[in-house]
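re: that chain from earlier
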Amino acid sequence: MVSSIRGESVHSTSVALDVRIWKWLVGLLVAGLTVFVMPIPKLVAIGLVFAAAVIKAALVIRKYMHLEAEHWLLYEIALTPVLLIIAMAVALLPDIAFKQ
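^ sequence. v structure.
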């Protein structure tokens, strides 16, 4: 086993992080499922479920797709189309809303 500076093994630290991420994923899943039995408006419940899904996706992407070591430019390249789509939707919203 490879040792780290503090004397802990790298493998045990990695397994501990995997377990912690797994607990977060399960917790977010349970939270997303219990939102629908709570007495809150359906639109708020859907928003909370989507927020939990975004957090879960970010956890999976960062850890299991090994993107924590990627350069910031990769994030900018991935975010640019999303921002352009949002800008297009905002620009077209008056045409869609006031369609006669």
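The radius of gyration is 20 Å.
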